[in-house]
Specification:
alpha+beta, six-stranded antiparallel sheet
Length: 633
């Protein structure tokens, strides 16, 4: 019973071929989306083919785990969509094999794919992420003249900060140039302003040639003597044209790997858990030290100063009861000095607290990023299983193969998954949600959908029966259904026109009696509508008897009779008496006044429509009676 059956092999082959094809399609789409983010770092940098090959290779390895869920979703949709479209799934179920039994070979394959996803993220993905990050940093450092931004300071050139107000992309000229030349000594700084300029690499790729027009050069001069002075001599130069040679190695060199050593994406789960202990211990130590320093700020008198004269003044008033009395005893310059000192200390303390707050947010953000990465490795593998139990049942329900409807549904499901996954990650990273909740919210949303679709498909429930939803919507909105009686090509028994004419005459008499008794144009009592049973047995009887006559007359060979039958309206037998069939639901609707008013007006509309329908039935019945009496054959 548990052995491999031919059906398992057949379905596994169908799924396997589609999975390989869709995997490469998804991998290509993800690579193009990733490449689009870093296209500016590749174009015009003069990168060699081996560097580009490394870039695409590591990018492909990084995106393999992300391509698995989407490929499983699409391939399972197409597989069971093809089986349903070709009626093979119907034959499988007719043989007594349930949907879940037909999935057992694919379930094993999907669990293997989930295990491969974890292996990639543990063994191959971290190294690929490290190599990719190293390549991206190295690419950004190559040919900086091509990526100088507008409106911000660019620090990609060693010992130089460059600001450009506007850049002409066609000519490469820079306008509104501000340059800060930095060295190890404050006395050797330079500020250069220029109306325009151009930055180019030299032929040997070892320097950058900066050509400037119409500017000024401000530079601090080194003091020749050893005497320390508060004033630093400087020189000012005005120029019309000037060239500056900057040291810069334009060849492609890999950046130092130590720069990205703290990146959580470049670590396995074992390394992340090991580093998390160190990070948390370090964060706790830093937090305790910040707390102790903050407490010292809190319990230190703000008017204490390192100025001896102020200390002496304070010491002479040690018997004063509080700070207000102490300040009140100071006058003139002494009070101003104490006030300035207190304000300066308060400003220093505030700046120190803000700096420590930013640093605390940074170090705790690193802890959250490590935890997010560790949890994400398992949620991404789990999404492979969830996507299968969404895709396969949906394919069995929709019964559409190929790349049309399955692709549309796959895109919709993946967009929902991406929105929840990305939003949860951002909220967890910014400490708005807990990490566990943020990284599991996509799973919590899609897992119930997978269970629901699997249950519905296994029980052959019509989840996506458009006609059923259309009819339900029409009933809710009170829209009329049109009668569609078509002439039959083969007729076994002809209708009994005499008997049908007699029955139609009786129906007309019942309608006259009903209209006289119920007076449908009047407003009924809301108490009767919402709080008393209101089934209209008379209208149900009229409708049932009329349908029997129509069913018999539909065997007619006369086109005129078929035409008249289509003029009969479809009666709504209870909507004119109460909103719902359940008594408790009507009572709740009547208590909620706005909802009750809506359904009361809706009920009035159905009463007027029933009146018109009954009149139409009488008119059509008279026409059929006259026609059948004159031309019974």
């Amino acid at each position: 019973m548990l052995g491999i059956k031919k059906l398992d092999i057949f379905i596994a082959k169908q799924f396997g071929l589609l999975f390989v094809a869709t995997f490469f399609i998804c991998q290509f789409v993800l690579m193009m989306q990733f490449l689009w983010r870093y296209v500016d770092d590749l174009i015009g940098k003069g990168l060699t083919m081996d560097v580009l090959a490394q870039f695409f290779w590591y990018m492909a390895l990084m995106l393999v785990p992300q391509a698995f869920p989407l490929a499983i979703l699409l391939s399972s949709l197409i597989t069971y969509g093809n089986l349903g479209e070709s009626s093979e799934l119907t034959a499988i179920k007719a043989a007594g094999i349930s949907l879940l039994q037909s999935m057992r070979s694919l379930i094993i394959i999907v669990f293997l794919v989930a295990g491969i996803s974890i292996y990639f993220q543990e063994e191959i993905g971290p190294n690929a992420n490290r190599q990719m990050a190293q390549l991206l940093i190295s690419m950004k450092q190559k040919s900086p003249e091509l990526e100088i931004p507008e409106g911000v300071f660019y620090d990609g050139i060693p010992n130089t900060n460059l600001y450009v107000e506007h850049k002409d992309m066609d000519t490469g000229k820079l306008y509104g140039v501000i340059i800060y030349r930095q060295t190890s000594s404050y006395e050797d700084q330079a500020i250069i302003l220029a109306d325009s300029g151009m930055l180019q690499s030299t032929a040997e790729k070892k320097h950058l040639l900066l050509t400037l027009w119409s500017g000024e050069w401000f530079e601090n001069m080194k003091q020749q003597d050893m005497v320390m002075s508060a004033e630093v001599p400087y020189r000012r130069e005005t120029f019309f044209h000037k060239q500056i040679l900057l040291d810069f190695d334009g060849d492609f060199n890999l950046a130092d790997a130590s720069i990205i050593s703290g990146n959580a994406k470049g670590k396995s789960t074992r390394q992340i858990l090991h580093d998390l202990d160190s990070i948390r211990h370090s964060n706790d130590s830093i937090g305790r030290s910040f707390y102790e320093e903050g407490m010292r700020y809190s319990f230190t008198s703000p008017i204490l100063s390192h100025d001896d004269s102020i200390r002496l003044a304070i010491d002479t008033h040690q018997n004063l009861p509080d700070i207000d009395s102490l300040l009140g005893s100071l006058q003139g310059d002494m009070l101003r000095q104490v006030t300035k000192s207190a304000a300066r200390q308060a400003q220093m303390a505030s700046s120190d607290v803000l700096m420590k707050s930013d640093y605390s947010n940074f170090i705790f953000r690193q802890e959250r990023l490590h935890l997010i990465e560790a949890i994400g490795k398992f949620t991404l593998a789990l999404s492979c299983i969830i996507f299968f139990f969404i895709g396969a049942p949906l394919g069995a329900i929709i019964r559409k193969g190929g790349l049309g409807v399955p692709v549309i549904i796959s895109v919709i499901v993946f967009i929902v998954y991406y929105i929840f996954e990305n939003s949860g990650m951002r909220m967890a990273r910014d400490d708005n949600w807990t990490v566990w909740f943020g990284k599991s919210i996509s799973t919590m949303v899609l897992a119930p959908l997978a269970v629901f679709f699997t249950y519905k498909a296994n029980n052959d429930s019509a989840v996506f029966n458009i006609d059923a939803y259309r009819l339900l919507l029409m009933r809710m909105l009170g829209l009329r259904q049109k009668r569609n009686v078509a002439a039959k090509e083969v007729i076994i028994n002809d209708p009994d026109y005499a008997r049908d004419a007699t029955l139609l005459g009786n129906i007309n008499q019942r309608i006259d009696h009903y209209l006289a008794e119920h007076r449908l144009k009047r407003w009924p009592s809301p108490i009767k509508v919402f709080f008393r049973p209101g089934d209209d047995q008379e209208v149900e009887g009229i409708s049932k008897e009329l349908e029997q006559v129509i069913d018999d007359l539909s065997n007619s060979r006369q086109a005129q009779v078929i035409h008249l039958l289509n003029q009969y309206p479809v009666l709504a037998t209870h909507a004119h008496t109460r909103p719902f069939r359940q008594r408790w639901l009507n009572a709740i609707t009547g208590i909620i006044l706005p909802l009750g008013a809506f359904f009361y007006i809706r009920m009035l509309r159905f009463r007027l429509r029933l009146y018109k329908d009954l009149k139409t039935i009488q008119k059509t019945s008279n026409s059929i009676i006259d026609y059948t009496n004159n031309e019974p054959d």
